[in-house]
Amino acid sequence: MAAMAPALRVCRGILKELRASIGPTYNKSLAYNYVMDQFRKNKITGERYCRAQQEAHHDSNTYLCLLGSTRTHLALHKMYHGKGECSQESAAAMVGLRLPTQPGGKGWEK
Amino acid sequence: MFRRLVRLQGPLGNILSPDKVCPRNQQLRCAVNYSSALVEKGRFYKDVSISQSEGGLYEINLDRRKLKTPGGKLFTAPNEAMAIAVATEWDAQKDTLKYYTMHLTTLCNTALDNPTHRTKEQMISAALKFLETDTVCYRVDEPHSLVELQKNEWDPVLHWIENRYNVTIGSSSSILGPAIPKETNDTFRQHLKSYNFWSMTGLEFVITQLKSVVLAIGVIDRHLSVEQAVLLSRLEEEYQIKYWGNVEWAHDYESYELRARTAAGALFVHLSSESSTVKRKLMQN
């Protein structure tokens, strides 16, 4: 029932995610070497229905999902929840109000 | 040449735990501080690497320091794949450390420290308790299109697991939920006993995230993909979203977080329970 993307697309997806999260040196990273190694090892099989190959395919899909969704989740967090507290002026400005000012001070301030 | 002792001071000034002071000659023993959630820790290392120790366990090195769990134990991964995945999580951190994105690290820490001191039997019992209120078995009566959707999407998974494990689960729209026969519980208990402690930690995590034993087993047995399982788990929400509209900062945020956690849990289970050997087949002409 698990209709999954073909292996090549998963592989490229994982490499794209690694490049996005690690940076330009991703092709020297441990994960890159391991993933490429695993894909090469499982590419050729003598069986018609090779369980190890199916399992590896599912695991690679899972890992792609993990990398992609953590990155997306982090981006969403930064966009919507990362701002922290804002000042009184900006909180008021959010609803189109301004803070009241009293020229001359309140009298009891220095 | 004189060398000044580098004192790492937190923002709390003099209230330092012994862990935070790292004199140069003790660099290798420095614990990675998980400290409080309020203080944002910056990325203090440049390179992440793994090394193998005795017993076939793998350790993570941040520059020259060994990674430790929040409980103070040395962080050890059972195999190379897990170690590489954890190292990648640490390597993906940019200027600040965001622990909530390091799911595999958190799972490993939980398995290593076991902070709540639970046994495997307790975890199995807790997991099976979820079966009584399994999402996939809990149906609504109305609206009619949602009832249809639940039938079309959830029934196939229920049939699959009933066939696969030779059990009866059934679904119910009453508030009490389905009545799970004792044989079903026993069968699942027997099956869950075959997982080791680490895999059980991961499996319980997936069950808690998906709110369903059926869907969790579906993912672990590789019958469903992670995206499919998350969709099925959030079926009613997706139905409402299609009707009322999507709110990115809530719906998408939760959806991607659930996907990330479930994927991490599933990968954790698979990596903890696998063992691979390479057998060379001779080419026969």
Automatic annotation (TrEMBL), chain A:
Phylogenetic classification of the source organism: Eukaryota, Metazoa, Chordata, Craniata, Vertebrata
Function, as annotated: Plays a role in the assembly/stability of the mitochondrial membrane ATP synthase (F(1)F(0) ATP synthase or Complex V).
The family this protein is said to belong to: Belongs to the FMC1 family.
Protein name (Swiss-Prot/TrEMBL): Protein FMC1 homolog
Species: Dissostichus eleginoides (Patagonian toothfish)
Record-level GO cellular component terms: mitochondrion
Pfam families: Complex1_LYR_2 (PF13233)
UniProtKB/TrEMBL annotation, chain B:
GO cellular component, as recorded: mitochondrial inner membrane
Topology with respect to the bilayer: Peripheral membrane protein
Domain of life of the organism encoding this protein: Eukaryota
Keyword Cell membrane in record: no
InterPro entries found in the cross-reference section: ATP12_ATP_synth-F1-assembly (IPR011419), ATP12_ATP_synth-F1-assembly_N (IPR042272), ATP12_ortho_dom_sf (IPR023335)
UniProt cross-references to Gene3D superfamilies, sorted A to Z: ATP12 ATPase (1.10.3580.10), ATP12-like (3.30.2180.10)
Main localization, broad class: mitochondrion
Pfam families for this protein: ATP12
SUPFAM superfamilies named in the record: ATP12-like
Keywords for the protein's UniProt record, in alphabetical order: Chaperone, Membrane, Mitochondrion, Mitochondrion inner membrane, Transit peptide
Keyword Transit peptide listed: yes
Compartment(s) where it occurs, according to its Swiss-Prot or TrEMBL record: Mitochondrion inner membrane
Assembly behavior: Interacts with ATP5F1B; involved in the assembly of the F1 component of the mitochondrial ATP synthase (ATPase). Interacts with FMC1.
Function text: Plays a role in the assembly of the F1 component of the mitochondrial ATP synthase (ATPase).
Protein family membership: Belongs to the ATP12 family.
Record's protein name: ATP synthase mitochondrial F1 complex assembly factor 2
Source species of the chain: Pagothenia borchgrevinki
